[in-house]
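Design review, sub-item: ligand-bound model
Attendees: FS, YL, KQ
YL presented the inputs for the heme C complex:
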Amino acid sequence: MEWFSKAVPILGLVLVGVGCGDSDEETGPNTRYYEGADSKALGVAGNQADCATCHANDDAKGRPGATLKNIAYHSSFKGGGAATLLDASNACIVGWMGGTALTDSDPRWMELEAYIESISDPAVTTPNAIAPEVLADEAAYESAYAGGDSAAGQAKYTQYCSGCHASGRVVGPANSPTLTQLAAHSVGRIAQQVRTAGPPPSGSADASDTTPGPMPFFEPSDLSVSDLKDIIAYIKS
Ligand code: HEC
Ligand code: HEC
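KQ shared the predicted structure:
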């Protein structure tokens, strides 16, 4: 019965593989690496952010990253900073999620790419503009973002921020601070964090100088100046 003791673990592995819901030609593209446990596992151990935390797969607003709908066939990504869909996705997997870059032939990437292609029109090739709002320093953000309407800000905070900040969601290695912790910061510091993912290290007004941190940045096209003003007024109220 020697074959049997060897075959049992092998059989076990096969069954586990089936149970995980491996996709194949029969099931077609699926969201497995876009949202849920397998997507989160592309990041560092304990990471709770999946692609869907930051990117819609439809036209819905409210997330910091661009929608992945109609993105697969763009001629470049990240405002020219990434040549391929894989490079752009890896920038997120490594930079925000704290994981290891995927390769072209990795089955996880092939499945994720097939999904993004399935929601993309090959005729849409024009890249998205990328334009983070980088002001000189915290004081400049303070004067640009003071004076919002806190009553109007509550619903906007729920839409844009609480998905991470209400649940303490772990993004890459970092916990999202609570509302009380956010409120301890100045208006200028909050605005700077939202617009640049943190204070630029050199303080220069250079878009390439944003600090990639676990918190993604929101461009004005994703979150308007007046909406962010209201959100900050709500946080500070
Ligand atoms: C914590 C938030 C976050 C997570 C998680 C994340 N991204 Fe991103 N991603 C961003 C931000 C912010 C940008 C740059 C700004 C933008 O695209 O609007 C970006 C940019 C991109 C771009 C380039 C967009 C463009 O317009 O050129 C692609 C493609 C992309 N991400 C794919 C992915 C994929 C695939 C995953 C999951 C494996 C993922 N991202 C996970 C926040 C995130
Ligand atoms: C994808 C998840 C995510 C979203 C969405 C998000 N944040 Fe964050 N935020 C984080 C994480 C994670 C940190 C911790 C970053 C670190 O430790 O470097 C953070 C940090 C911050 C900080 C710095 C706090 C500190 O103590 O250092 C501020 C301020 C902030 N967020 C405000 C906001 C606001 C306002 C919004 C909505 C417009 C928002 N965030 C949306 C994940 C998120």
